[in-house]
Design goal:
Layout lengths: L7 H8 L41 H4 L1 H14 L5 H7 L12 H12 L21 H27 L3 E2 L2 E2 L1 H5 L1 H22 L2 H22 L3 H4 L2 H26 L4 H28 L2 H4 L5 H4 L5 H9 L3 H7 L4 H13 L2 H21 L7 H19 L2
Antiparallel strand pairs: 1-2
Helix pairs in contact: 3-6, 4-8, 5-6, 5-11, 5-19, 6-8, 6-9, 6-11, 9-11, 11-12, 12-18, 15-17, 15-18, 16-17, 18-19
């Protein structure tokens, strides 16, 4: 299935809006979502939500995040000390990162607290009945974080990275071999936890996300010349590398709750579009941020020869930039020339506009969920909307 299809109506709405969103040449799959102009929570401009502390997404699930963090540290203990040290390297207090994915999944779990048939009982690792839905959804958050961190460990090896989250990358501190094994170990622990849920559909969703992570990395490593300069190829790769894990995990918490296929798909759409927006802004920050804010090297992508959305958009305005990119960036002069073209173009702004479009699609998914009178449900949905804005303005 092509990642881009449909959405001509939304594309027309965006082209005709006053928010400055560019003419989208490709289309985004948004099955079941309303046109964006109908959404209660549009965020073309900053709204007051982001300043409302009571809807701060991280504060709302702070206690649960601590529980998830403690569980993660317990889950990665190994018999071999060096393996334990490596596996828990990015789960230690102070270097856990933003815990963005667990936050999304915990909020989504509450946002989907709707009247449903009682989910079937399942068995935990010890064989006892695990009927506590919230505990099972927390388990999805833990599984997702382990898979994410495993992918970071492997990515750092492939990229020969020397920093991650503001500290030395594991491959630099402990060596490539141990970093590879630590990533593999995290994946194995995630699989054990996944099996304990004994839900075939959830297993399939998470397995698909892992498959996509690998596919996205291979796409990035082995592009043809035409693919390298294709925005559609870039967005497909971005979905696989960044958005698939969070989208399939959001759908998994809905499946565990016994939600309908339609509601589960709305959860998926929220995660997919949030993940795409997150990566688009991350690509912008690679040019505009600092090493401290990124937790990795400034201009990391372009120095590794990775062409992202800002450069692709700049190339549309200045086709001569392609010749510079073709030469590669081993020569610092080529980096300077590329940055000069980028500065003269609207590449940064158009990438931000595309990120805003995807956050609007994420908000539309939340807006399409069935109405609820439950205050906890309402707060969690507002927090999920708040999170989309944080991705744009502060990520």
């Amino acid at each position: 299935m092509s990642f881009y299809r449909g959405l001509s109506k939304i594309s027309r709405n965006l082209r005709g809006s006053s928010s400055g969103i560019f003419n989208v040449r490709s289309f985004v799959f948004t099955k079941g979502l309303p046109a964006l102009h109908c959404s209660r929570y549009q965020i073309h401009q900053k709204s007051h939500f982001i300043s409302e502390d009571k809807f701060d997404p991280f504060s709302m699930v702070a206690d649960e995040l601590s529980l998830v963090a403690n569980n993660l540290r317990a889950m990665v203990v190994a018999e071999v000390p060096n393996l334990s040290l490596s596996a828990e390297y990015f789960f230690r207090v102070g270097v856990e990162g933003k815990r963005f994915r667990p936050t999304v999944l915990l909020l989504m779990s509450t946002a989907l607290k709707l009247s449903t048939p009682k989910p079937p009982h399942h068995f935990d690792q010890g064989g006892s009945v695990a009927s506590d839905l919230r505990t099972r959804q927390q388990c999805i958050a833990q599984i997702t974080e382990m898979i994410h961190v495993a992918s970071l460990l492997h990515d750092d090896i492939l990229d020969d990275a020397d920093t991650r989250r503001g500290i030395g990358s594991l491959n630099i501190v402990m060596g490539n071999k141990l970093a590879v094994l630590a990533g593999d170990f995290l994946l194995s622990r995630a699989v054990v936890a996944l099996a304990s849920l004994q839900n075939t559909e959830v297993v399939s969703l998470v397995a698909r996300a892992i498959d996509d992570l690998v596919t996205g990395e291979i796409m990035q490593m082995s592009t043809t010349a035409d693919q390298r300069y294709s925005m559609e190829y870039y967005m497909q790769k971005t979905y696989y590398k960044t958005a698939s894990l969070i989208s399939n995990s959001c759908k998994a918490v809905a499946v565990l709750a016994g939600q309908t296929a339609e509601i589960a798909m709305l959860a998926f759409d929220y995660g997919k579009n949030l993940g795409l927006a997150f990566q688009l802004i991350d690509d912008v920050l690679d040019f505009t941020g600092t090493s401290a804010s990124l937790g990795k090297g400034f201009l990391s992508d372009i120095r590794h020869g990775i062409v992202t959305a800002p450069i692709l958009f700049a190339m549309e305005e200045f086709p001569q930039l392609r010749a510079v990119v073709d030469k590669g960036f081993d020569n610092p002069d080529n980096v300077d020339i590329a940055l000069e073209y980028l500065g003269k173009s609207r590449g940064i702004q158009r990438t931000k506009d595309l990120a805003v479009m995807h956050t609007n699609l994420a908000v539309a998914a939340i807006d399409s969920l069935p109405d609820s009178d439950d205050e906890e449900v309402k707060k969690s949905r507002r927090a999920l909307v708040n999170l989309t804005q944080r991705v744009i303005v502060s990520h």
